[in-house]
Structure formats: C-alpha cells, structure tokens
Amino acid sequence: MARRPLPRILTSGQPLARMTNSASLARSRELARTAADSASDVFHPLIIIARGLRRLGAAGRGRWVATPREHRGPMAFFVGACVLVVCLVPYGPLLALITLMGAGAWAGRERTPVETGPGEAATERLRALYEALVPYLSVDGDPSPLYAPDGDWERAFPEYAFDDSGRLERLQLKYPAYFTDGEDCARARIEQVLYAKAGRGREYHFAWDELTNQLTLTALGPLPTDIAAQRFVTSPGELVLGFTDPDFVQRTLPVTGGEETRDAPPVVWRTGPRSTEPHLLALGQPGTGATTLLRSLALQALQHGDVLVIDGGGTGEYGCLAGRRGVLGVESGLAGALATLEWASHETERRLIAANRARQAGRPAPDDTRRPLWIIADRPTALAHIASAEGREDPQEWLQVPLRHGRAAHVTVVVAEHFESAELLSEPVRAHTKARVVLGPATAEEVRAVLGAPPHTTPIAQVPPGRGYARLGTAAVLRLQVPATPDPLDDATGQAHREAVLALLPERTVPADGAGPAEPVDAPQPVDVHKAGDVRTAGEGRSAGDVRKTEDVRAAGDAKTGDVRKPENVRKPVDIRKPVDIRKVGARKSGGAAAVEPADGPAAAEGATQDGEDGSAGEPVGAAVRAAHGKGGEPRVVNGSADASRPEG
Ligand SMILES: Nc1ncnc2c1ncn2[C@@H]1O[C@H](COP(=O)(O)OP(=O)(O)OP(=O)(O)O)[C@@H](O)[C@H]1O
C-alpha cells in the first residue's frame, strides 16, 4: 500500500514552544504513520476482498443492466432459487460466505499492468520510417503538417504491429489529402521507402485507401511450395492455376502438402462458355516453371476433356501425356503442329455449326460439341521461326479460330512463352488471352505490361520456381505459386512428385512402345488430327498419341532452307529489360487501331478485335461462322458430320 501523507498541522507561538511542539508533532506523526502501516498490513486481506466484492458487484450490476427486460424476471427467479437452495442446504450459508470471500479475494487481487506501446527499438524504427517519409508527404506552407522533421509520428501511424523477432509486420499510416495517391509513380516512391525501411527480403502488400487517405502495409509470408500435383476439388471447367494469399480470395480447397491435409486459397480459373477469360497466356523467363504450369493444367483438363499439346520448345517435357486417354496429340515438330492446329481450328468451326444446327432444330447441342477441347501451346513462337525459314504459315495462325470462337465451342487455348519472344506472339493470341500469368522474377513494369496492372506487392530477391503473378480479366493481380508438377520421365524428378504426377495421368490407350492400342478405345475417340478438315476418328486413321519427333522436322527445315537462324529469317527478339506492352505490340504489328486492347482492361478489347484482324484468315472464319449462324449457305456434310473444311477465301 502506498503511504498517504498525513495532514500538515500549522503551528504558532513562541520559538521554544514551537520547537517542543514540532518535535512532539513529528513524533506523533511518525506514530500515526506506523499505526497506519500496521493497520494496512493487518487489514490488507480485507481491503482486497472488499475491492473484489466491489468489482464483482459492479460486474453484476453491468450484467443486470445489459440483460433485456424480458429476461430479467427469469434471471431474478433463478438467483432467488439458488439463494434459497443455499440457505436450505446444511452449512450452505457458511459455504456460500466462504465462496463469496474467495471470489472477492480473486477479483480484488492486484494485477500488474500490461505494458502497452512499442518498445524502445520499435519506437526508433517507427520514428526512422516517419522521418524517411517526410520529404515525400509534406509540402512547404502546410500550416499543420502531418509529416514534419521531428514531428509526431504517433499521429501519422495509428496502427502498427511487430512480430516476435521485432520486424514490422503491419503498419497503417495516414497521409495528407494533397498527396497524389492516384499517380502510380507517387505511390511507387512511398512503397519503395517503406520497403527499404521495413526490411528487405520479405514481400509486402500495399493497400491504398484513397477515401480515407490511409495506406496499410502488410508483410506477407512466403507462398507454400510444398503443394504438389493432386486432384483438386473443383467443378468441371474450373482449373487451379496455383495458390495465393488467404486474404485475397474467398475460397479455400483441401490440399495435401507434405504429410498433412489443410485448406489452401487457390487461384481458380473458370473456363467454358460462361467464362469471361476463356483463354490463358503465361509469360516468364526461361526455367521459371511455364512448362510445369501447362503440365499441371493439362492433367486437370484431362479429367473432363481432351487435350492437344504443341511443344514448340521440343524439349519432350510432355512425353508423359503421349498415348494417354484424352490426349489427342503431343506435337513438337512444325508439320505435326500445323496439322494438329489446323484440325483444331476446323473442329472449332464444326462444333459451332453442329451446335447451331441443333439449336435451330430445337435440340440440345450434341455431346461431341460439348466435350471440352484444350489446345496447350508451349512456346509456339519457336515453331514460327522454323515456319518462316521454310516459307510456311505460322502455326499461330491456326489458333485464331479457337481463340476467337473457342469459348462457345468449349475450346480453350493455353499459351506459354518466354518474355523475350513475347513480341512474336500473334495478335489474336494477345487479344484473346484474358487470363494472364507472369512467372519468375519480373519488375513491376514487366508485370504491368503483361497483366495490365502492376502487382500490389514488392518483388522478392529469391523467386522459387513456379512463383509469379496471375490476373483473371480485370480482377486484382494475385501472387501465385504453381503446384509442383514435374516431368515424371525426368531423372531429376523426386520419387514422391513422380508418383503424384503418374497417379493423375489417364490410362494408356497406346502402349509405351507405340506398337498399337493397349486396350479397346471407347468414347471419347481421339481424332486424327493429321487430316485437318476431316473429322474422322483415329480408329479410321492414325492412332492418337502419335508424337512426332521435332528433330525430324527441324532437320528437314534445315536441309531445305539452310540455317533457320539467318538474320533475314528470324525476327529480332524483344529486349526483356525494355518492357514491352504486348497488348500494344499487337497494334503495331497489325497496323490497326482496332487491335489495340484498351487500357481499361482486356474485356473491352473483345469487340474491337473481332473485326480488326487481317483479312486473310479472318474472312473465311467469318464466313464459316456466318454459315453456322444460319446467315450463309448450308455447310457440307461429310461422313454424316458437318464438314467444316476451310471455305474459299
Ligand atoms: N511449381 C513448381 N514447383 C516446384 N518446382 C518447379 C515448379 N515449376 C517449375 N519447377 C522446376 O523448375 C525447373 C524448370 O521448370 P520448367 O521446365 O517448367 O520451366 P520452363 O519455364 O518451362 O523452362 P523452359 O522454358 O526453359 O523449358 C524444373 O526443374 C521444374 O521441376
């Protein structure tokens, strides 16, 4: 107990008497103080109990006040009944009194006040951060600056949190209304300062609230890299691109990572006729995981549909898919790729025509027009080099119809390309791939050039494979970690990952040595993609899963045309350090403003690009589609199917 000062007694009279008086006064004061101390020691328990009872009484009163009126009667009845029972029980009142004293003593005990506020080191860091922001968030002539040298940092930082190791975890800061928070460069400056002062080596998310002039910085943990390929719980048409931060998506999926099963927040891409982003483009530096992403998507797509793979890089990393049920082909050579894509283009038209005829006849669309078809093209520009050297058409030209009309025909196109070859991507690929992914290290400008918006997070120094950013249409840019889906035929692949991928592969329809069908092939029948325009099935022609060897075609190309890398044959690649807005490049190449995707998002470009293609391939397609919609002539029927072979241009 703190001692209370005794009241001072004023004296008057002669000096001696005053001295005597003051001595006795001092003695009596001392006596009184000792008595008070002893009394407080003796009565200390009682004081504590009294204080506790007072607190309990106050809590009870508060509870009574908070109880709705209609509940007070039953409550009073219950309390009265308890008191009655206690009174009737032998020794009940005594026990109740002891319990009450005990509760009072517990409630009245002295509690050490919890220390609040940041420690000295944390205060120092916050002050340093505040001072660093002063030049950017203050102007001369502000009568009441929020940021000023030696200013009040507590006014500017209403909320902050540090982790156990003393690193800043979260910071909410106010900024003056005159700060140009609508300008990207002004924001970027503040973000850079905060990134440097909050500690490099971690990723931070910045949430700008222009309405209240507040910025919230949150340190983000690394995305999980232990999620491997597995069956994800999704609906047909939904594909998991990877996993992201829990606060940025509303959904979680149960996943097995390492030994345990947990819920993880996925980036789910919805495809099909109702999708607003029916096709996907992934760009990245070499070796950052684009092939892995495409392999992961192929394995998911094979659950409900058929897949065609164009392996432009010719690295054979899709070999595990060859000869599997639902895999219509894995092509790595120019001739095979051209034939395959030509077939896919005609198949898209055929589906449109068949579905339209069924609609006109009042029937549902036939099943064979509704089975999803996936065209997965990894590095198609590599084949464009060879095609240009051989004087043949760019395989990307055959992607035009699937890209433009694939959505209605259940045809989805996925393209992956290296940053440096992005300029060689055809204009339809750029215009119609509204789902975008950037993999590997990339600056904010590079991410913006591909996704149409910068990431709201800082870059990290060490980027694990499969890490990047994803944006679906005009939605927010999300951090992305692709599930590990390595090539099971690669010797470097670990046993656990190999087994995980092999478990997802459909059964073989062709034995590994390619001798012939391993088992009877039933629906869906793989299609002979090498006879473009003819919709016969593999049973009538070549078997599915027949993988062409890239080397053959390349060798042929070299033999015929000489070095395909001759300067006149090869277009100059883009300098990745000089970021290229690939949406704009399309406009430059096609020379038409109609091909430029507007700045307000890819969705707005859909209509613009419909008519802005060059006429060579666009016109026949337009004619076919007009026919499909009943405005043109009747399509020819071959073998009982609508022949969608290329109309005369
Ligand atoms: N999500 C991932 N998780 C774990 N490892 C990955 C992931 N993505 C890629 N890797 C690993 O990174 C390496 C390169 O991957 P991948 O071949 O997919 O990259 P890439 O971009 O296609 O490269 P390139 O274009 O040069 O062929 C491989 O060893 C692969 O196993």
From TrEMBL:
Basic and acidic residues biased stretches: 534-584
Binding residue positions for ATP: 284-291
SUPFAM superfamilies from the UniProt entry: P-loop containing nucleoside triphosphate hydrolases (SSF52540)
Stored InterPro entries: FtsK_dom, P-loop_NTPase
GO molecular function: ATP binding; DNA binding
Keyword Transmembrane: yes
Listed name of the protein: FtsK domain-containing protein
